[in-house]
Amino acid sequence: MTSGRAPQLVIFDCDGVLVDSEPTSNGVLAQMLSEQGLPTTLEQARGEYQGLLLSEVLERAEFRLGRSLPEGWLGAYEREREAAFRRELKAVPGAAAAVEAVRAAGVGVCVASQGKLSKTRLSLELTGMRALFADDWLFSAESVPRGKPHPDLFLHAASSMQADSEGCVVVEDTPLGVVAGVAAGMRVLGYAADSDERALRDAGAEVVGSLEQVVEAIGL
């Protein structure tokens, strides 16, 4: 899809695009890995684990640790993360306005996240954006054979929303997500306010620095 043509559908990632969850998620992860004997800073957690499926986080952490984490550790992480979300999660500046602008222009919207649907719903509820998306506009990598960087999730979302790949714009903040969108044959905008601009561009994204610029970039 060229930049001069209005899209059929804008697919938003959730974490780091709609909700400012990455510092919180990775802060909890860094603390819990450090407690297990794998000293990890917030910056290291974001560099090593951000954008991965939870199963991949576990696998990578155990490899670096050289042993298995305790049974139930991943569930404990999810509970600690949820508690932290309830204390401090905020929307990304301009997120609600961007979604509203896209919808007002008659363009479809949906969310496609690596995380569980329950996590996406909670994140949107806590930040006041749940009403912007119908239940069947939310998609999780749990519903497809492969998560990002594979295209499966975005293709599933587009098909479910009755949109063609070339009519979709993906808004992502991680290189893994950008690679997935490009592989799906979609135009990808890389939101770089809290991400590595060069890495997003190298992965194939058109870089934007704010969600207002997302609306401008797609000509709405």
Report the order of strands and helices: EHHHHHEHEHEHEHEH
How does the helix and strand content classify structurally?
alpha/beta
Total number of helical segments? 10
CATH C-level name of the largest domain: Alpha Beta
So what's the oligomer here? Answer: single chain
Query: What's the overall geometry?
Result: globular
What topology, given as strand order, has the largest sheet? 3-2-1-4-5-6
- Give Rg in angstroms: 17 Å
What does this structure look like?
The chain is an alpha/beta fold and 220 residues long. It has two domains: 9-21 and 90-217, HAD superfamily/HAD-like (Rossmann fold, 3-Layer(aba) Sandwich), CATH 3.40.50; 22-88, Putative phosphatase, domain 2 (DNA polymerase, domain 1), CATH 1.10.150.240. It is 46% helix and 12% strand. It has ten helices and six strands; from the N terminus they run E-H-H-H-H-H-E-H-E-H-E-H-E-H-E-H. The chain has helices at residues 22-35, 42-49, 54-65, 73-88, 95-104, 117-126, 152-160, 175-183, 197-203, 211-217; strands at residues 9-12, 108-113, 138-140, 168-172, 187-191, 206-208. The protein has a six-stranded parallel sheet with strand order 3-2-1-4-5-6, sandwiched between helices. Helix 9 (197-203) links the parallel strand 5 and strand 6. Helix 8 (175-183) packs parallel to helix 9. It starts with 8 loop residues before the first strand and ends with a helix. The mean pLDDT is 95.
